[in-house]
Design brief:
The chain is of the alpha+beta class. It is built from 24 helices and nine strands. The protein has a five-stranded mixed beta sheet with strand order 2-3-4-5-7. It has a two-stranded antiparallel sheet with strand order 1-6. Strands 8-9 form a two-stranded antiparallel ribbon. It is flat and about 85 Å long. The protein starts with a helix and ends with a helix.
Length: 513
């Protein structure tokens, strides 16, 4: 970590005073913290080191990068090291107004804009130039051209996501980016491996073939790459990928492989397609409309084209975000997926009209929130998954759906250590069981739904006991046993043993016999 200049500022009052007075980098403001509690989405540590008069805050991240957060919900990396960031802050004292400049703007445009900003600054601060010269000398900072400083700032800002996404601690919403520079869409880094593997398959490398086709993730990515780069000579490799994808049962990529094979219109592929369809029940259902043997080329092509138009396409930008977040997670690109998921969730919180169903604007398409909760949990970000799940639960229409959503909410609250909130959530479940307001729960005691309700009650009871809360555990155990008592014999099978072990645990903690 390079922080020589910061250490000198901390040790010497003279440069610290110059930095605060002329460059709005005030170490004394660090004691006040930021305007609100914040954290990095990645979970990495951040340290407040200075503040600005406008309420902004300078943070140092674990790798030495400096993150600036303003008081209006914007944040971005402004230097890959503390010294580099101070070069920008002191060399471009108008850096706030330079965040949207780029080397692509050209040297002349950059110099003109910086000169204009500095002229305005000099009109208000006659000692600015002398202070900059003294600070650079005292702190050992290089004198760089405005174009070089803009390049450093631009490069740093582009590093903000995915590793340095700043969130509000309380609500979990993401800060917007400080700049408006374009970023690559998520599908580009996610699809990169698939494009490379597809090229290897096309080159006929048998070693590469075994490695790609035998790896479920690489195989799926290669199929996605073939979706967006279709070539007449790919039929044989598509056939092989289709056969191998049956190892993963009914995936979207299996359906895609069948479509890509079918679009070639070769009727000799019909036996293969039917063989694939009969792999298992789910695959049979997913490919139920394949033309029967004896169909003509036109019928086969028409089937594939209709399914292609309905489910796939040739532009990766048209794919649902879920396609790319799930493939990102499959590859271990967790932070990329996390940023995209949090941004998507924030968008829904800001404007729930984005959930309106095109076929029925009076209804909400809440499955998107359910997917967000699921994928956020896959990233390991349980607080964000819980944030999505709570919203999902509030939007359910029937008592059955509300209870199902509340059970997942309670499970996540329990996993996050929010035990009092989980107790409240399960109390809401019991209230709905007592007064559902519709007939969706009429059979809940005779199906596995009742088992799930009881199991979550016992799981939370154990968590309360383990947390040293015997009174709360005892009360919830009573409620859990009451639910168990309402279940029919088959759904309750095995639950009585769980109930007994839970009661023993509560007794161990609370001194019960």
């Amino acid at each position: 970590m390079t922080d020589h200049a910061l250490q000198r500022l901390r040790q010497d009052p003279r440069p610290a005073e110059l930095a605060a007075l002329h460059f709005d980098f005030d170490l004394s403001r660090a004691a006040h913290g930021h305007v609100e509690p914040v954290r990095l989405a990645s979970g990495g540590p951040i340290e407040v080191v200075a503040g600005s008069g406008a309420g902004g805050t300078y943070f140092v991240c674990a790798d030495g990068s400096m993150l600036y957060a303003d008081s209006e919900g914007g944040a971005g990396i402004i230097g890959s090291t503390v010294d580099e960031a101070l070069e920008v802050v002191i060399g471009l004292p108008c850096w706030f107004d330079c965040v949207n400049l780029s080397p692509r703007d050209g040297e002349q445009a950059v110099l003109a804009r910086v000169a204009e900003l500095e002229a305005e600054l000099r009109a208000d601060d006659a000692g600015f130039d002398a202070a900059r010269t003294e600070l650079r000398a005292t702190l050992g900072l290089a004198e760089r051209s405005p174009l070089r400083l803009v390049t450093l700032l631009h490069t740093a800002l582009l590093r903000t996501e995915p590793d340095f996404l700043l969130l509000t601690e309380e609500e979990g919403g993401a800060y917007r980016l400080l700049d408006e520079h374009p970023r690559p869409p998520l599908w580009e880094p996610v699809l990169a491996r698939g494009r490379a593997d597809l090229a290897l398959l096309r080159a006929g490398d048998r070693t590469a073939w075994d490695a790609v086709a035998g790896d479920p993730v690489r195989r799926r990515l290669a199929l996605r790459a073939a979706q967006f780069d279709r070539r007449d000579g790919d039929l044989e490799l598509l056939r092989q990928l289709l056969r191998r994808e049956t190892e993963s049962s009914m995936t979207d990529e299996l359906r895609l492989a069948a479509v890509l094979v079918g679009r070639h219109g070769d009727v000799t592929d019909l036996p293969l397609l039917h063989e694939v369809r009969e792999t298992d029940f789910d695959t049979h259902c997913g490919l139920s409309e394949i033309p029967e043997p004896g169909a003509g080329s036109a019928e086969l092509s028409r089937w594939a084209e209709e399914l292609d138009d309905a489910m796939f396409g040739t532009d990766p930008a048209d794919e649902p975000l879920a396609t790319w977040t799930e493939l990102a997670l499959d590859q271990g690109l967790t932070e990329l997926a996390r940023v995209a998921l949090i941004r998507a969730l924030d968008e829904i919180f800001l404007d729930q009209s984005t959930l309106r169903r095109p076929d029925d604007p009076t209804r909400l398409e809440t499955s998107r929130i359910n997917w967000l909760a699921h994928d956020l949990e896959r990233t390991g970000d349980l607080p964000q998954a819980l944030r999505a799940q709570r919203l999902y639960a509030t939007l359910q229409d029937t008592a059955w759906d509300r209870i199902s959503a509340l059970l997942d909410q309670a499970r996540l609250e329990r996993a996050c250590g929010q035990l009092p909130l989980a107790r409240t959530t399960l109390a809401s479940v019991r209230a709905l069981l007592a007064d559902p307001g519709d007939d969706s729960l009429r059979h809940w005691t005779r199906v596995n739904f009742g088992r799930f309700i009881a199991e979550e009650h016992y799981a939370l009871t154990r968590a309360l006991a383990d947390a040293g809360l015997p009174r709360e555990a005892r009360a919830l155990l009573t409620a859990a046993d009451a639910i168990l008592g309402e279940l029919s014999e088959n759904p309750a099978e095995g639950l009585r043993e769980l109930a007994g072990k839970t009661a023993e645990r509560v007794g161990d903690v609370g001194g019960l016999s």
